[in-house]
């Protein structure tokens, strides 16, 4: 008798809809700077272990005051954006002159992620939510199981291991826009060298009191011309 094998955690129903349980996760990195929030993400989208798409935008403005970046499953990110569109529309319908700030949107996302986790049907994303409202900068993250925190700089995926140490050493609260962009590019270059899921095509976005600006895609300068008889990581950024 043939066994009906399915992925762990799924019912043995061949007609049930199935989603990947092991998506390839790329990184988003964000930090506070003097005037607001800066966020960077590459544009890779994986199909299994294949880097199939290289023009996937993973940072989106949310309402008037917030910017969302996501790594993980693209389809789940699209589902989250649909939830947020409904949330912003419902908030605007009140027409009371008030609008949701980044803290409220972040709290909403943590509840959504935790709720889906409790239903054993999580949205397979790690999220970064940044924004500025009434002069107050806000930056937080939420994991796929609802774990969340606020900080002066945050990252998802391998960025937690490779970019955060750099940010701890070099970040300060009076970063200019140019210094912040340079620091994010350094982090993204380290991720490109070290993370096989990263691609050399990225965007950097900023959000201030004036609103959200997302850059055109561009590539970083890299160097791969190492001698076969040398240590290719010697002196490179992110080396041990």
TrEMBL record:
Xref: Gene3D superfamilies: Glutamine Phosphoribosylpyrophosphate, subunit 1, domain 1
Alphabetized PROSITE patterns for the sequence: PROTEASOME_BETA_1, PROTEASOME_BETA_2
Compartment annotation: Cytoplasm; Nucleus
UniProt-listed InterPro entries: Ntn_hydrolases_N, Proteasome_alpha, Proteasome_beta4, Proteasome_bsu_CS, Proteasome_sua/b, Proteasome_suB-type
UniProt keyword annotation of Nucleus present: yes
Transmembrane segments: none
One CC-aspect GO term: proteasome complex
Keywords for this protein: Cytoplasm, Nucleus, Proteasome
SUPFAM superfamilies named in the record: N-terminal nucleophile aminohydrolases (Ntn hydrolases)
Signal peptide: none
Similarity remark: Belongs to the peptidase T1B family.
Record text on subunit structure and interactions: Component of the 20S core complex of the 26S proteasome. The 26S proteasome is composed of a core protease (CP), known as the 20S proteasome, capped at one or both ends by the 19S regulatory particle (RP/PA700). The 20S proteasome core is composed of 28 subunits that are arranged in four stacked rings, resulting in a barrel-shaped structure. The two end rings are each formed by seven alpha subunits, and the two central rings are each formed by seven beta subunits. The catalytic chamber with the active sites is on the inside of the barrel.
Job of this protein: Non-catalytic component of the proteasome.
Name the UniProt record assigns to this protein: Proteasome subunit beta
